[in-house]
Amino acid sequence: LAWSLPQEDGGAEITHYIVERRETSRLNWVIVEGECPTLSYVVTRLIKNNEYIFRVRAVNKYGPDVPVESEPIVARNSF
């Protein structure tokens, strides 16, 4: 999973990102990485052929930003 820098940093340097996933058949979001320091993350523990949506939030000293969501994707391999 990879993303770009946000257009705005909220007035402070971004310290990390929160990466979450949700199965499209469910309503709850699961944090897969709470303190990702880079613009990418290898998401594990996916179920083959399940459909997922991912979202990422930039975090600075003022707190997390509004999340950005992916389009639904189907896991092709189990990791």
Features of this protein?
6-stranded antiparallel sheet, mainly beta, elongated, 79 residues, Immunoglobulin-like, 6 strands
Task: Walk me through what this model shows.
- By secondary structure, the protein is mainly β.
- Helix content is 0%, strand content 39%.
- It has one domain: Immunoglobulins (Immunoglobulin-like), CATH 2.60.40.
- The chain has no helices and 6 strands.
- Strands 1, 2, 3, 4, 5 and 6 form a 6-stranded antiparallel β-sheet that branches.
- Strand 3 and strand 4 form a beta hairpin.
- It is elongated and about 40 Å long.
- It comes from Homo sapiens (Human).
- Keywords: Immunoglobulin domain.
- This is Titin.
- InterPro entries: FN3_dom (IPR003961), FN3_sf (IPR036116), Ig-like_fold (IPR013783).
Short description:
With 79 residues, the protein is mainly β. 0% of the residues lie in helices and 39% in strands.
Domains, number: 1
Residue share in β-strands: 35-45%
Question: From the alpha-carbon coordinates, what is the Rg to the nearest angstrom?
Answer: 13 Å
CATH architecture: Sandwich
* CATH fold call: Immunoglobulin-like
On the 0-100 scale, what is the average pLDDT? 94
What would you call the structural class? Answer: mainly beta
Give the name of the CATH superfamily: Immunoglobulins
Low-confidence parts, pLDDT < 50 over ≥5 residues?
Answer: none
Strand tally is: 6
SSE string: EEEEEE
What's the end-to-end separation, in Å? 13 Å
Major beta-sheet overview = 6 strands, antiparallel
The CATH C-level class name: Mainly Beta
Percent of residues in helices comes to under 10%
